[in-house]
């Protein structure tokens, strides 16, 4: 009986040693994969940082362009306003620019009347 227990104990020790060797090999493989994954994560973090930097630069450029366009919309230059045909007619006639613009549109779309009485044309 003692020899059977010794043999059983010897067999369990050998299987435990085999299991420990397998686990060590698996541990080595897993540590290698972990190192590869960590380096890949570091690469992807660099790419992400670069993309965020580029995105920030693009957003800043777009905001600057929008700001410039807003300035053009809200602040017409004095030179372009004074030299515009609408402004000249407004100064001459004292009419609102929207009325003059509608008159210009009507004038450009209607054919000239040769039989108009020049005495009736007040403008």
Task: Please characterize this protein's 3D structure.
The protein has 123 residues and is mainly alpha-helical. It has a domain at 1-71. The protein has 4 helices and no strands. It has helices at 2-74, 78-82, 85-93, 97-109. The termini are far apart. The mean pLDDT is 78.
Q: What is the makeup of the main sheet?
A: none
- Strand fraction equals under 5%
User: Helix coverage percent of residues?
Assistant: over 70%
For the secondary structure, the number of strands is 0
Give the mean pLDDT: 78
Report the structural category: mainly alpha
The tally of helices reads: 4
Low-confidence stretches: none
The ordered string of helix (H) and strand (E) elements is: HHHH
- Radius of gyration, in angstroms, nearest whole number: 44 Å
- Morphology: rod-shaped
Short characterization:
With 123 residues, the protein is mainly alpha-helical.
Chain-wise SSE layout:
Elements lengths: L1 H73 L3 H5 L2 H9 L3 H13 L14
Features:
123 residues; single chain; 4 helices; mainly alpha
